[in-house]
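Summary for the steering committee. One of the milestones for this cycle was to obtain a three-dimensional model of the protein with farnesyl diphosphate bound, which we needed before selecting residues for the alanine scan. The sequence and ligand used are listed below.
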Amino acid sequence: MINRIFRRKKEETPLTDLLDMNNIPRHVAIIMDGNGRWAKRKGMPRAYGHHAGANTLKRVVIAAGELGIKVLTVYAFSTENWKRPVDEVSYIMKLMEEYLGTNLLELNEHNVKLHFIGDLSRLQPNLQQEFREAEADMADNTGLILNVAVNYGGRLELTQAMRRLAEDVESGRMTASDIDVDAVSKYLYTNPENDVDLLIRPGADKRVSNFLLWQMAYAEFWFTDICWPDFTKDTLVDAILSFQGRERRFGGLK
Ligand code: FPP
């Protein structure tokens, strides 16, 4: 009997009550994968999955802020995604523009500070302009920092960082012996919030896909078969609960 009551109470406990609010990962990164497969399973075109994925993003951003996550970096479009059919690429670009139009006010009300990372110079000038304006509108917000990675690649980010470092050495602003881990970190898009604590990848694949290669040096990884459009606040809580069960040693001993 007691066991039954206990089990019932456990089942009724909201997942968030199980969290240790003193051990919430500061920086969470998400590879928003599985949109296409999710749509296909419903007999719908891939674009339908991306549209649903954009709605999921808004819900997850709000949930992340409520849970006390400080930085959320999401992979929206990689340097390799240009290989997709031109229609799909155009749709994702259009979706990002629409997303800003529809959701900016609400994200602003949640005190979100928006930041686009990646090589934005390859995007249409009007989209670049929309991104810059959205960033400026939210520049004074003090809540969750939302980094949206667009035309992002970890290797490209490091290559650009190296190029800028070389230029600074060439011009005499620094010397080669000034280059250390901290110096390199300053040239990254995510600076000064570089270190990722938890990487989440829905959609069943278990790989990093050129995302935040430097920043993930000591990230904990969490994978799920759930596709991104079905990802909820409870899925995020599940990932954090798993994170809280890990022992992080950062290469040291317990
Ligand atoms: C990966 O799923 C998803 C993408 C390449 C696009 C992600 C875009 C969004 C979530 C929506 C737009 C973003 C913003 C910022 C509004 P996939 O297409 O690779 O899925 P699959 O592996 O099932 O084919």
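Key point for the committee: The helical segments are 2-12, 35-41, 46-67, 86-109, 125-137, 154-170, 181-185, 233-244.
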